[in-house]
């Protein structure tokens, strides 16, 4: 596997040195700000450089290049596989009844002998991420790992853009299938948040909208724990996500609050919260959040038998970036220390991360995690 990276920043293309043959590159990943990647000249330039590759776009809440995080730019990673083949499928949420059916459609289209893994680039505003991953799991015929993320739009939460082989637009979900025995894939997803308070039960919810916990109004209960942060809602909610355990599962997922409704006394989360689920409040621990990046990298590293990865795709949550602020680069640096200097590193800050729990194949929607997927050709 060979890679080549480009960085479009300040209106100028910066090309990193590489031995990749552009004419033989099969896949190009473009992660950038909403304002940048929708410029037609970005796609036109990349198509001229990579005439036969599938060019996949995702808008971000920050783009990752090596050990740095950037805003208002576009990070491009071209990949030339030696023995692996890829296939990309795109659909739009408006063509399906719901997000679940979207996931089913994508997995059905990729299903074929030799499928080794799937990477998802999804719209981050119109898609229900929990239902999307349920559809992906439902039709994972070959029981392969599925990872990826939901596109971002900085901290605006207004419009996200994704696309393939065209200027990106809204509502698209792209699935990239990797085929063959030569590709080895690792994955890890870790949060690093501290839980506090007693475990409680969700008693009233509607998909990703939460109304009651233990029979009491959830928003009022939440405000009670926020203290002085209550005056900074909804932004301060990123500091206090929920840990959720669904249907008696031993593993806990993390759910981030997207908005609150004072009139309905409800909270909308970036993922479903089924009634009967167990929840606990969480709070930020800066050192543990950064350490979690190392742990995610270690897990992805172990999955490929500690082989040196050729490529690492990092998908971290916008909430982590808003909390870490000037320390954001530290979680990328922590991952790179584990992955090694030979790995090409790219990725983005997202509105949701997709990955199995470390020992499972079934993928989940995560919030507030660092999720890492590693690729190695053998």
From TrEMBL:
Signal peptide location: none
Domain of life: Bacteria
Segments forming domain FIST: 24-217
Domain FIST C-domain span(s) in chain numbering: 218-357
InterPro entries: FIST_C, FIST_domain_N
Pfam families attached to this UniProt entry: FIST, FIST_C
Official protein name in the record: Histidine kinase
């Amino acid at each position: 596997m060979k890679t080549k990276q480009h960085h479009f920043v300040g209106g100028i293309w910066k090309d990193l040195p590489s031995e990749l043959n552009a004419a033989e590159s099969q896949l190009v990943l473009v992660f950038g700000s909403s304002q940048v990647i929708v410029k037609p000249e970005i796609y036109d330039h990349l198509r001229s450089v990579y005439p036969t590759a599938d060019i996949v776009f995702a808008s971000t809440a920050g783009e990752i290049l090596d050990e740095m995080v950037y805003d208002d730019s576009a990070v491009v990673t071209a990949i030339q596989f030696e023995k692996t083949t890829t296939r990309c499928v795109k659909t739009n949420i408006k063509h399906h009844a719901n997000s679940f059916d979207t996931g089913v459609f994508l997995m059905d289209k990729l299903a074929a002998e030799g499928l080794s893994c799937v990477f998802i680039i999804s719209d981050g505003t119109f898609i229900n991420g929990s239902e999307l991953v349920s559809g992906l799991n439902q039709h994972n015929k070959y029981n392969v790992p599925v990872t990826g993320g939901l596109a971002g739009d900085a901290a605006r939460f207004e419009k996200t853009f994704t696309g393939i082989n065209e200027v990106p637009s809204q509502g698209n979900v792209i699935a990239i299938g990797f085929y063959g025995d030569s590709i080895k894939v690792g994955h890890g997803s870790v949060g690093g948040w501290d839980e506090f308070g007693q475990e409680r039960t969700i008693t009233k919810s509607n998909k990703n909208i939460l109304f009651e916990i233990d029979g009491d109004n959830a928003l009022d209960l939440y405000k009670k724990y926020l203290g002085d942060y209550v005056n900074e809602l909804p932004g301060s909610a990123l500091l206090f996500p929920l840990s959720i355990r669904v249907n008696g599962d031993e593993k806990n997922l993390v759910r981030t609050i997207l908005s609150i409704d004072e009139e309905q006394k409800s909270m909308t989360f970036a993922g479903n919260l089924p009634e009967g689920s167990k929840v606990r409040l969480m709070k930020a621990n800066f050192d543990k959040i950064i350490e979690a990046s190392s742990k995610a990298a270690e897990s992805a590293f172990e999955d490929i038998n500690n082989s040196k990865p050729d490529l690492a795709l990092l998908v971290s949550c916008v909430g982590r970036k808003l909390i870490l602020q000037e320390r954001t680069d530290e979680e990328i640096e922590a991952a790179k220390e584990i992955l090694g200097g030979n790995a090409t590193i790219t990725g983005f800050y997202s509105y949701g991360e997709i990955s199995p729990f470390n020992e499972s194949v079934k993928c989940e929607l995560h919030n507030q995690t660092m999720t890492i997927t590693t690729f190695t050709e053998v």
